[in-house]
Amino acid sequence: MSxxxxxxxxxxxxxxxxxxxxLEFAAFGFPLGGAFVVGWPAAPxxxxxxxxxxxxxxxxxxxxxxxxAPHPDIAALIAAATEAGAGAVVDVGGKWTAMQLLGPGxxxxxxxxxxxxxxxxxxxxxxxxxxxxxxILARVPDGFAVWVRSSYAxxxxxxxxxxxxxA
Length: 167
Hints:
Layout: E1 2-4, E2 13-17, E3 22-27, E4 47-49, E5 55-61, E6 64-68, H1 72-83, E7 87-91, E8 96-102, H2 106-111, H3 116-119, E9 125-130, E10 133-140, E11 143-149, H4 153-166
């Protein structure tokens, strides 16, 4: 469930998701090896999507994956990797705040803080700094999914609002 923050703004809207379980997997070695890697987005910046095109497992940094609202099959992948001794899983539901910047103007809004095309060139996601806020950025069908460090979420929203006033 999401809450639109700027639903009436022309060209884009910012939505925040209700807090949800979220996992991070940190591999002890890289590249991953063993049978459990089937189904993992292994390439840097690779993303596994669900049927609706939403990111469900993001390889956002070297040897690190984010699983927002992990489905049972994603939780099973992470459990298998952990049981195989390939890495550690951490519940990070409080670390990240999930948001979406949607609409045809979303890329233009983000262009005031980062060159989205350059950052995502050859990748589906990246660890970035948006409006001075640590974040993970990924494309979704109508714009971008953004996971902002929770301690920066209010600053991110304020910066987006400020960009709207400048436009």
